[in-house]
Design goal:
heterodimer, A: alpha+beta, PmbA/TldD fold, six-stranded mixed sheet, 23 strands, 39% strand, globular, B: alpha+beta, 21 strands
Chain lengths: 465, 472
């Protein structure tokens, strides 16, 4: 099977056959492989992640972008895809210049890996998974736990008729543990999830104490008779929930393609104050070691730190080359493809709330009465409507400035701008944490992102979920 | 009408290379796919993609080990001899470390029952993919455009032509064709003297057909909902009578029931006990692998077992569970129910060869009741909420809970749809432990007409005492 390095000449040749028919064309070729391992009481499934190799060609036809893709990296497959692209260019003729500035120059980069998962044996990975399982099930009442362990290497080579060449290798490692508490047909769980770019060192913070704590939480969730509260109330978002708020609720509205489409409620608010001085929101694809990090985007631009909200003021949005041109900005390195089979969109990378000055205890005291929202499972965007929806697996009631009983799963909703304006404080950097996840554009095109922050005190609508 | 034949031989070529080289039972699932996409920006085409050509296979080796059955699974897009040999070695190397509770599995052979006759191909799309896609996009833009104060703001139409092949060490060889379509459209409403912010209605629809008939009427409804979203108010807080149309429950029922009524859940003590009460008396549920144009419909499942029907719930009582070969063996049953599938319900990709088979639902069928049309259901409900759309239902297949933000709904007052609602959250537990409240246990009326939406065929469902948290 042809490697990406071996295929480079063929990629360049295929691109040259397209060049006479367009003012700009590019190719992104990819090779991905890894291993996923799932273990619980009933089964163990170690599975090599599918070895996916292929290339996608994109060209400007004069009126729109056109693309073709193929799984083969041999000259026959690549030339067939290139021929298909030439035909597609002819079907959408026009005289407009390609939008925005292309990347240029030649660069390579690879994730620094201290302890490669690829160099460890499968037996070692299985033993590690069983150790995590053992820690979770050592808690009385936790009869089973789902352990997932995964590592992957994603090589991408980008070349364009503007002379750009990029070659990057991203290595990602992750693990999750889901202790299950089951009794008389009722099932409850909590979870712990770690992941980042790098090797085994990414998982060094998975300790027995943390996993036992999560297992105890699953047991407490099964035992509780408490009901989730309903209505508008003071909420204290844990770092994972604050991050999901930054990503899903706010971040999707800062993807500039949504602004260009007139599909973001944030468009008229650029430059305005949206929250208090203590609120700063950032997207940063260049953060070392984070799950959503990369060196270059899929248009060849370097990833970077972009401050979206700076001390309460909405300063910047995320761009690809086209939106940057429309909005008279520079690309921010956020044009991402889920893989070589998917088109590029403006996407987030690592999105977070910057830490503030309060301690956790001070925020609880400030809250007086309300809920802490913990173990965020998911969220969804509403870029035009500006509503928010986040689901958490559990929470804690706050009564008279003290943390009291555990609460079952809840959904958080409300208007994003109202929640931003209601922010009363963020906790210190000691609480800052980021969680790995996958994000879709609409309902498809999932790719790795991370989100996080400190504890964030605000007001929102809460209900059961 | 019979499906078009497949000329693909992906799995057969790989099987040829494997025969005589693998001692343990094995199976190869191959796919050859062509995909075409049109992405929209407002009323114009932003990007045309295709053909996107993908071919690959997954090899599963089932090797008996002291603790049960070892399973090795490897997938690749490489089809050369060298890559097939690498995959074989990797699958054999991984098999002893994979542990399933099954003792032994007998793979379906060429002498077993033949494949079911099913409908899963849009013939027009198969024969003229680019033209059919272009015609549909034209019809979509025509239907959504030309309306005052409403525009399509975002969207894509994606079609996939698939040729699946399956071969195993028992001599089975199967090939069949399928079509898959994904339509995503956001319709934005704006303008008007009141100056309210824009509203949006967002449609995500996966099916096997691309039929432009009826788009104009549908687009009118989308436009109305987008307009209504602008003036909608938050719902009331508290327990409410809710009417769930199929388009809403398709994000909930297949995901949760697909796992909780499966052999995988039974092994983990998560299925309701046989014959126990899990739903109201009026609830009858099936899994139907032969449902016409169902997303899980195929002549055979992805292990080669002919597709069939499994009764999950009868008169509210738990029936059978869905099984693949491994879970049939592990739970002491003689046969798979034809649910050995390689797709997943949530965020499902358009190719399947990269996943090993697992017990996965095909189409969940909720039998219709006697509640009549939607209008008659609304009239009979008297007061309550018609739920138009949840932002996302967040189905949790472990706890069986779901819940999300109401993107659009309508109050029902005095038997008629009244003002629109939006915001707040709505949620519940789909199936619960005996004695605990649940959505299926609180069904009080079912419509007379079923609609196929995603992996669910169901009528409109009326449920009592659903928890709603409004903006109060």
């Amino acid at each position: 099977m042809t490697s990406l390095r071996e295929a480079e000449e063929e990629l360049a040749h295929a691109l040259r056959t397209i060049e006479p028919h367009t003012r700009y064309a590019e190719v992104m070729a990819e090779s991905a492989e890894g291993v996923r391992l799932r273990h619980d009481k009933e089964s163990t499934d170690p599975v090599p992640a599918p070895r996916m190799r292929g290339a996608v060609f994109r060209a400007w036809s004069g009126s729109s972008w056109v693309e073709t893709a193929t799984t083969g990296l041999d000259s026959r497959s690549l030339n067939r895809a290139a021929d298909g692209l030439v035909r597609a260019i002819a079907k959408a003729p026009g005289t407009l210049p390609p939008p925005g500035e292309p990347s240029t120059g030649d660069a390579e980069a690879a994730t620094p890996v201290r302890e490669s998962m690829f160099e460890r044996s499968l037996v070692e990975h299985l033993e590690f998974a069983k150790t995590l399982f053992g820690w979770a099930t050592s808690v009385p009442g936790i009869g089973n736990a789902i352990v997932n362990l995964g590592y992957a290497r994603d090589e991408r080579c980008f070349r364009s008729t503007a002379g750009a060449r990029r070659f990057q290798t991203i290595t990602r490692t992750s693990a999750s543990i889901v202790p299950l508490a089951i009794e008389n047909g009722r099932v409850e769980y909590d979870f712990l999830s770690h992941g980042g770019t790098g090797g085994r060192e990414v998982l060094a913070t998975l300790t027995e104490a943390k996993i036992r704590e999560v297992a105890l939480e699953a047991k407490a969730l099964l035992a509780t008779k408490a009901k989730a509260p309903t209505g508008s109330m003071t909420v204290l978002l844990d770092p994972g929930t604050a991050g999901t708020f930054a990503h899903e609720s706010f971040g999707h509205g800062t993807e500039a393609d949504q602004l260009v489409r007139d599909r973001s409620y944030l468009k008229p608010l650029l430059g305005q104050r949206l929250g208090p001085e203590c609120l700063t929101l950032v997207d940063d694809g260049s953060m070392p070691g984070k799950w959503g990090s990369m060196f270059f985007d899929d248009e060849g631009h370097r990833s970077q730190r972009t401050v979206l909200v700076d001390h309460g003021v909405f300063r910047e949005v995320l761009h690809d080359r086209e939106t940057a041109a429309v909005m008279h900005r520079t690309p921010t390195g956020n044009a991402r493809r889920a893989d070589f089979l998917s088109r590029p969109f403006v996407r987030m990378t690592n999105t977070f709330v910057e830490p503030g000055e309060f301690t956790f205890d001070e925020l609880v005291e400030e809250a007086k009465d309300g809920v802490i929202l913990q173990s965020c499972t998911s969220g969804i965007e509403d870029p035009l409507g500006g509503n928010m929806q986040i689901k958490v697996k559990k929470g804690r009631r706050i009564e008279h400035g003290k943390v009291t009983e555990i609460l079952p799963s809840m959904a958080l909703s409300g208007k994003v701008l109202e929640v931003l304006a209601s922010v009363r404080g963020a906790s210190r950097s000691a609480d800052f944490d980021m969680s790995p996840g996958f994000c879709g554009k609409g309902h498809t095109d999932l790719l790795p992102v991370s989100s996080g922050g400190p504890y964030l005190l605000a007001r929102a609508v809460v209900g059961p979920a | 009408m019979s499906a078009p034949g497949s000329s693909a031989d992906t799995a057969f070529r790989v099987a040829e290379r494997l025969r005589g080289k693998v001692e343990a039972p094995w199976e190869v699932f191959g796919e050859r796919l062509r995909r075409y996409e049109v992405h929209l920006n407002g009323g114009s085409v932003e990007m045309a993609r295709g053909p996107i050509e993908l071919e690959g296979f997954g090899l599963r080796v089932l090797r008996p080990v002291p603790s049960g059955l070892g399973v090795g699974f490897v997938a690749t897009t490489g089809l050369g001899d060298e890559e097939v040999d690498r995959v074989r070695k990797a699958a054999e190397e991984f098999a002893p470390f994979g542990h399933s509770p099954a003792k032994a599995v007998v793979l379906p052979g060429s002498g077993g029952p033949g494949p079911a006759s099913v409908e899963s191909v849009d013939r027009a799309l198969w024969e003229r993919p680019e033209e059919t896609l272009a015609e549909y996009v034209h019809a979509l833009l025509e239907a959504t455009g030309g309306r005052p104060e409403v525009v399509p703001s975002f969207g894509s139409v994606r079609v996939t032509l698939g040729e699946a092949t399956l071969a195993n060490s028992s001599g089975l060889e199967r090939a069949y064709t399928q079509t898959l379509t994904d339509v995503e459209v956001a319709v934005k409403a704006f303008g008007g003297p009141e100056g309210a912010p824009p509203g949006e209605y967002w449609v995500n629809r996966r099916s096997r057909q691309l039929d432009p008939r009826g788009l104009r009427e549908e687009a009118a409804e989308w436009a109305q909902r987008a307009q209504d979203a602008r003036r909608a108010k938050a719902p009331p807080t508290g327990p409410q009578r809710i009417l769930f149309p199929t388009d809403v429950m398709t994000d909930v029922m297949p995901s949760i029931l697909g796992f909780r009524f499966s052999g995988a859940a039974e092994l983990r003590h998560m299925t309701p006990k046989a014959d126990s009460k899990v739903a109201a008396d009026s609830v009858h549920l099936w899994d139907d692998g032969q449902f016409p144009f169902g997303l899980g419909t195929a002549p055979v499942d992805d292990e080669g077992t002919p597709s069939g029907r499994t009764r999950l719930v009868k008169s509210g009582e738990m029936g059978a569970v869905m099984l693949d070969l491994i879970h049939a063996s592990a739970t002491g049953r003689p046969d798979s129910t034809g649910n050995g599938r390689r797709d997943s319900i949530d965020f499902a990709p358009w190719f399947h060869f990269t996943r090993a088979p697992a017990p996965v639902t095909t189409t969940i069928v909720l039998e219709p009741g006697k509640g009549g049309t939607d209008e008659e259901m609304i009239e009979a409900a008297g007061d309550g909420i018609w739920l138009g759309q949840l932002g996302y239902a967040f189905p949790d297949d472990i706890s069986a809970a779901f819940g999300g933000e109401i993107r659009i709904g309508y109050r029902i007052r005095h038997g008629k749809l009244a003002e629109p609602i939006r915001g707040g959250t709505l949620g519940g537990v789909l199936i619960a432990a005996p004695g605990d409240p649940s959505i299926l246990g609180s069904v009080s009326n079912l419509g007379s007409r079923s609609v196929l939406s995603g992996h669910l065929s169901a009528p409109t469902m009326q449920v009592e005492n659903v928890t709603v948290a409004g903006d109060t």
